[in-house]
Amino acid sequence: MRDVTVLRTDRFILRPLRSDDTAALFPTFADEGQCLYLTRPAFTSAEELWGWLAEPGWNGRTWIAEGANGAVCGRFVAVPGHEAGVEEVGYVTVMDRQGEGVARECMVALVEHLFAEGLRKLTAEVDTDNTPSIRLLERLGFRKEAHFRQHETTHAGLREVLVYGLLASDPR
């Protein structure tokens, strides 16, 4: 994993992942409904989740959104894309904080930070049935660039995927 810069929003601190975050993330990542749009099924143990979160060979960056009371509210990632200057972003809000604007507030800060680092484009892949995520991406200014039909087989079966993109020069 690559190093991350600590970011601040009005309500959250986005900080590097720590091993003790696993306990707070596990209920969400162990829930089949919450993991429907992941490419893998729900996790069966905290140890399995930590192995995935802290995979030594993974070349992405992880930010943990921490609320004012120190509670873990979500996980946000940026992963190098197909060429320099492009990264794919992703996010998961913990179950008990969904619908509170956590992802929107944290993604606004992350998008601005990534473009300030010099990236020219951000992308996001989203299952066509993941309406809340699609709405968030569109509110952030991402544009739909591709619709891949019968694109990948996951634990949820054969899925269709949308690819969204946001250029540094796009209005936000």
From TrEMBL:
Protein name stated in the entry: GNAT family N-acetyltransferase
GO CC annotation terms, alphabetical: cytoplasm
Keyword Transferase: yes
Domain of life of the native organism: Bacteria
InterPro entries, A to Z: Acyl_CoA_acyltransferase, GNAT_dom, Ribosomal_N-acetyltransferase
Gene3D superfamilies: 3.40.630.30
Domain called N-acetyltransferase: residue spans: 12-169
GO molecular function: protein N-terminal-serine acetyltransferase activity; protein-N-terminal-alanine acetyltransferase activity
Pfam family, one: Acetyltransf_3
Keywords: Transferase
